Structures are given as C-alpha cells and as structure tokens.
Amino acid sequence: MYGEIITIGTELISGRTLDLNAWYAAGRLTASGLRVTRMTAVGDDRERVTDALSRALGESLFVIVTGGLGSTEDDMTTAIVADALKRPLCLDRRMFDLIKSHAEARGMEMTAALEKMAWMPGGAQVLKPEGNACGFRMVEGAVRLYFLPGVPDQMRYLMDECVLPDLLQRFQTLPVLRQRILKLYGVSEPVIAETFKSLEAKSPDVQFGFYPRFPENHITISLRGPDEPSVSRELDQAESAVQGLLGEYVFSAGSDTMEEVVGRGLIKAGLKLASAESCTGGMIGQMLTNVPGSSDYFEGGVISYSNAAKVGFLGVRRRTLARHGAVSRETALEMAEGVRGRMHVDIGLSVTGIAGPAGGSAEKPVGTVYFGLAHEGASFAERYRFWGTRKQIRKNAAMMALDWVRRFLHGDPFLSGV
C-alpha cells in the first residue's frame, strides 16, 4: 500500500513552475487509503532520473512518474526508462495510429517528434488507448509503475481514470473511505503544521492533509475503516479536535466559499451590507456578487480610490484626510460610516491601504491596510500588515474584509467593540 511519486522537469527544480502534479497525486492517493513515502522532483537529466527510478524500485510497491512524455527534445522519460530497465523501445501501433489521426485532423504532418510518443519500453501498456492523453504502465518485479504526462489536466485525468482504479484493485484497503474538508483563513502554515503534530498523536489512523490555496488554507481529514458508523465517529472526533484548536479560523466545513458563508450569515441575521473600497478596487463587491441572489443582502459598493472620491461619495472629512491620511484608522471609520449612511444599510464595511509596490513609508509600509465596520451607530477599525505582491495584498485585504463580517455575525469577541 505504499509508493512514491517522481516528477520530471527542469522547470520544477528551477522554481519556474509549481509542482501541482505531485500535490494532486499525493492527495488522491492518501485519500484513497494508499501511503506515499516519498516525493522526488528531478530535472530533465538522464542520470538523475535513472537514480530516482532505481531507488524507487528498491523501496516501493508502486511508483508514479509524471513528465517527459511529450514530443520535444527534452522529453526523454520513455527512453530513460527503457534504458534503466534494460528493455527495448517498441512501437505501439495503437498509439501511433491515434497520434497520426490527431495530427491529420489538425492539418499537421506526422513528424518524427510526434512519432516518438508512440515508442514505449517493451512490456508497457497504454493507459487509455482511446483517449487524448499519453501515458503507460509497467510491472517490474513486484513494483507497478505508472508514467503520466506532465500537463496537469491530462495527468489528473489519467490519475483518476486509470491509476487509482488499478491500484485499488490490486492493493487491499478497508471498504469505507470518508473525507472532510475544512477551509481556514487568517492562520499561518507553521501554526497548522504544529497543530497537526498533536492531532496525529491522538488520531494515528486519521490522515490529515494540508493544502495552501492562497489566501486560504485547506485541511483534509480522511479515514478508511470497516464500516460507516465507526469511520464517522472517528472523523467527528478528529474534526472536533481541529475545531477546538483552530476553530476561530475555520470559515467553512465543505465546499462553501467565504462569500457564500457571509451571504448566508447576512440572510440569517436579516441584515444588509454595503462596501467602501479603496486599495481593493471593487474586489469585495465582486466576491459578494459571485453568489447568486446576493442582491438580497448586498446593497452595493463605492470604489473611492482618490481622496476626492472619499470626500464626495462617502462624506469623509477633508480634515481627517489632512491630519491622518487616506490610509488610517480614522479614514477607515468614516468610510464605513459614510457608506452605511448613504446606502441606508445595516453594516458598512471599508478598506483602505497601500498595495504597492510603491507608495509606502517607514510609518506605513507597503501592505498596510485599515479596515472599518459600522453598525447601528457604532464603529470599529483596525490596522493590518500583509505581505507579497500587489495582487496578493489586494486579495488578502478583500478576504480579510469578508472575514470581518463573518466574525461579526458570529459574535466574535474580536469585534465586540462594534
């Protein structure tokens, strides 16, 4: 039940491309009750690939290799595998005919580079002869090997359609598999990693997974067991343990987005919201209106990017801007109060900050963002510092603004001043 993943591509080890294939394969294998003991990324180098493959053959029951199956000069995986396993390269007629038909349908000539993809090590079997993705499997001794393309969509298709069913048919696992997903915002990756250490000690049979999805973090809780009741009970306990340690950051248990959670909360409370945005430039409004029916609780928003817009549309006082600046607690408060009053809503939400890359100072560096929330005459504002690119800072600011609304609706003590 244990194996490893090898991803091939110079772009992976140079940092130009994220290794999403290894991430996806590991998550799918773990969720299926199979164990991943190692993940290795190597460049397009014959010696390195051969070494990684040889080591995997000596230590694993299955090996999944992605990348290097295309038609370009640096796609060498098939030739390297044939050489390492001392097998001849053989033309797979079905694959050749398939590639040729695709080429002809697109008005392309059947070149030697395209034909290269139809040559496979002796004994290899095409994973999906009738499909559009190139991949094959082999058996070397007691080890099953699967070779998948590096293109993420093609890799995921073959992983789900061919590799997982084949592995689960050959390696016995417990019959009942269940998985739960918790979405978190506002907690760092090191804190989650430390939390996992204590959770794994208490629930050794439960598989905890951690997947950053900027600006969110997702936790998966997976378990295989003999029957539904026992699996559900243990998952309930594991989820309760996570909630007990990280509950304030958990905004969804399932597939719901932050904007969907906030929308349901506003409907339940019978409240309407309006936004006043500066550095986010309308991202908060866009997120809220991604949800069908959001007009039931979102009245609208003002993008008050300039000082003149803050004064003219929201009623921010010129004296406030002169004394404290556009990026300040005082301005955020007046923006929230202004949009609440002028839109005639229950909650006014504001954000103003410095997204960069220029415009920062020693007192207010790039990434400084102020948030404001006004409700029934009371107001609250706070300063945050975000890191990253301009795009990341703006995305984090929009997400934090909605998280403020979520926390307010749940009576979070953090917003007890409102």
Report on this structure.
There is one protein chain. Helix 10 (258-269) packs parallel to helix 15 (390-409). The protein folds into three domains: 2-170, 3-Layer(aba) Sandwich (Molybdenum Cofactor Biosythetic Enzyme, Chain A); 176-253, Alpha-Beta Plaits, CATH 3.30.70; 266-415, CinA-like (Maf protein), CATH 3.90.950. The chain has helices at 10-13, 20-31, 46-59, 77-84, 93-105, 112-115, 152-170, 189-202, 228-246, 258-269, 283-289, 307-314, 318-324, 329-343, 390-409; strands at residues 2-8, 35-42, 62-66, 89-91, 119-121, 125-126, 136-140, 143-148, 176-184, 207-213, 216-225, 250-253, 273-277, 298-303, 347-353, 368-375, 378-385. 42% of the residues lie in helices and 25% in strands. It is α/β, with parallel strands linked by helices. The mean pLDDT is 90.
Assigned CATH superfamily of the largest domain: MoaB/Mog-like domain
What number is the mean pLDDT?
Answer: 90
SS summary, helix count: 15
Strand order of the largest sheet: 2-1-3-8-7-6
The CATH class assignment of the largest domain is Alpha Beta
Write down the overall geometry: elongated
Our measurement of the CA-to-CA distance between the termini, rounded to an integer number of angstroms, reads: 54 Å
Count of DSSP strands: 17
Low-confidence segments:
none
Report a brief summary of the structure.
The protein is an alpha/beta fold and 418 residues long.
Give the topology:
Layout: E1 2-8, H1 10-13, H2 20-31, E2 35-42, H3 46-59, E3 62-66, H4 77-84, E4 89-91, H5 93-105, H6 112-115, E5 119-121, E6 125-126, E7 136-140, E8 143-148, H7 152-170, E9 176-184, H8 189-202, E10 207-213, E11 216-225, H9 228-246, E12 250-253, H10 258-269, E13 273-277, H11 283-289, E14 298-303, H12 307-314, H13 318-324, H14 329-343, E15 347-353, E16 368-375, E17 378-385, H15 390-409
Parallel strand pairs: 1-2, 1-3, 3-8, 13-14, 13-15
Antiparallel strand pairs: 4-5, 6-7, 7-8, 9-11, 9-12, 10-11, 15-16, 16-17
